[in-house]
Amino acid sequence: MTFAFDGSSIDGSSYTYVVGLAQDAPSWLDTLVRAWSTYGLAVFAVLMLVGWWQARHHSARAAVIALMVPVIVVVAYGVNSVFKLLVREDRPCQSLRVRTLEACPAPGDWSFPSNHAVIAAAAAVALLLVSRRLGTVALVAACAMAAARVWVGAHYPHDVVAGVLVGTLIAWSLAAFLGRVSDPLAGRLTQSRLRPLLVSA
Fold first, then answer.
1. Terminus-to-terminus CA distance in the chain, angstroms?
2. Are 171 and 122 in contact, with CB atoms under 8 Å apart?
3. What is the pTM of this model?
């Protein structure tokens, strides 16, 4: 038997309130939020690609940092997966048995912290190192993603708040390390076959 944590005592009432708003909202709004919740992470991938393309026209060091953004996101996702296994919080739709916009995940698909929020926050913070403009767009998108995950019923509010914190802390920690190695790494890579990834022709 798998023992799971019931997070409804933390902010279950806030969750049911938001889910209730979603049920009463216009169908077009629910459709937009549901689409963003499902496909919105692709926007962060596009922003990372744009950031890299712009960075390689600026400097090899900037391009190295831009190329590390997906790595930071993957590390954040991996660390969060460990947190999920340690906490093992049931999805709110399982604990509270409410009707939600998104289909309720199967038992064992843990809720805390939100993977979507972690990925979005880590990408946004890392993108700030590449471009303040792109990072700002990503930060707004990350907040929208966190809110959407509660709106569709996939997570409690504390799940997405924790996800944003985890993604932010991991991205800042890795960014500090990256700042120390980006110059020598850029110098080595520009002398290798990877030079086209760092410097525009």
1. 59
2. yes
3. 0.86
